[in-house]
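Recall that a protein's primary structure is simply its ordered list of amino acids. Everything else, from secondary elements to tertiary packing, is in principle encoded there. The following example makes that idea concrete.
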Amino acid sequence: MMNLTIGFKFDFDPCPLNHDVNKWDGLKIEWGKRNFINPPYSKELKAPFILKAVEEAKKGKLCVMLLPVSTSTKLFHDIILQNISEPVKFFKRRIKFIGYNSRGN
């Protein structure tokens, strides 16, 4: 099994699984120096998290995002491709998360 986090040494996740946004909102706070971002995939939240990652990256922070493939969108061409410092990587298979699945366990 491939570990996608090796070498990045992440120190912050602005949108952790099952997070209570009443405690803090990842779109409204300062992020860490080395961020892993797997944003909600809803239209209402995906784009704002991508824009926030661009903003934080411009401050010199590492922002690695896990996103669904949507290469035909304006968001991909006008925001993502225009602001990346590393090549986009595509994975052949679905990524399995250790300890969690879509059924809540």
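The chain has two helices and two strands. Helices lie at 43-57, 74-83.
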